Amino acid sequence: MTALEFNYKLLGLQKNLKYFAYTLTSNYEDAQDLVQETYLKALTNREKFTDNTNLKAWTFTIMKNTFINNYRQNVRNNTILDKTDDLYYLNLSKESSIGLPDSDYTLKEMHKAIEKISPEQRTPFVMYNQGYKYKEIAEKLDLSIGTVKSRIFFTRKKLMDALKD
C-alpha cells in the first residue's frame, strides 16, 4: 500500500476514531487530542502496518494503548511520594483550602483544640508540624525517640477525636 492510499484510508476512519475517543475520554477536547495523537502515531509508524490487514483495528489499538498510557502517566503525576515514617501525606489531596471562608474557622478550631492538650504532649506535636524531625525533637526535649513518636501519635488521635465533625 502506498503512502497516499494509507493516508486516504486513515482519513476515512476519522468519524469512527472520534466516536471511540469520546467513549474513552467522555470529554470532547480530550477526545480531539487523542484522535490527533493517534493520527500522529499511525503516520509515524506506517511502515509497521502490514498490508491486507485490518487498518481500523490497528488504528483503534493505537488509540486504546495511547489512552491507557496517558491515563497511567496522569495517575503517576498525581501520586504524592510520602517519605515520612508514618505515611502522613500518603493520600493528601493537592487541592488547598487556603483562602476558603471555612478554612479560617477550621484553623481556629484546630488551634483551640491544640491549646487544650497538655504541654508535654503538645510541644512535640507542634515541633513536628513545624518541620522538626523526630530525632531533633528528642534531642531538644531530652526524650527518647519512641516517647516523641508516641506523644505525637496520641496528640494526633486526641485532635481527631476533638475535631470529628
Précis, in short:
The protein is mainly α.
Describe the protein's architecture and organization:
- With 165 residues, the protein is mainly alpha-helical.
- It has 2 domains: 75 residues, Rna Polymerase Sigma Factor, Chain: A (Orthogonal Bundle); 62 residues, Winged helix-like DNA-binding domain superfamily/Winged helix DNA-binding domain (Arc Repressor Mutant, subunit A, Orthogonal Bundle).
- Helix content is 70%, strand content 0%.
- The chain has 8 helices and no strands.
- α2 packs across α3 and α3 crosses α4.
- The longest helix has 23 residues.
- The mean pLDDT is 83.
Give structural attributes.
165 residues; mainly alpha; Rna Polymerase Sigma Factor, Chain: A; Arc Repressor Mutant, subunit A; 8 helices; 0% strand; elongated
Helix-strand layout with pairing:
Elements: H1 3-12, H2 14-25, H3 28-44, H4 55-77, H5 101-116, H6 119-129, H7 134-141, H8 145-162
Helix pairs in contact: 2-3, 2-4, 3-4, 6-8, 7-8
Could you give the order of the helices and strands? HHHHHHHH
Average of pLDDT? 83
Strand count: 0
CATH superfamily caption of the largest domain: RNA polymerase sigma factor, region 2, helix turn helix motif
How many individual helices? 8
Helical content stands at 55-70%
The second-level CATH architecture of the largest domain is Orthogonal Bundle
State Rg: 28 Å
Main beta sheet strand tally, sense and closure: none
Report the portion of residues in β strands: under 5%
| Overall form | elongated
* Model regions low in confidence, pLDDT < 50 over at least 5 residues: none
Number of domains: 2
User: What structural class do the secondary elements suggest?
Assistant: mainly alpha
**Intertermini distance:** 67 Å
CATH hierarchy class name of the largest domain: Mainly Alpha
Q: Which fold name fills CATH's third level, the topology of the largest domain?
A: Rna Polymerase Sigma Factor, Chain: A
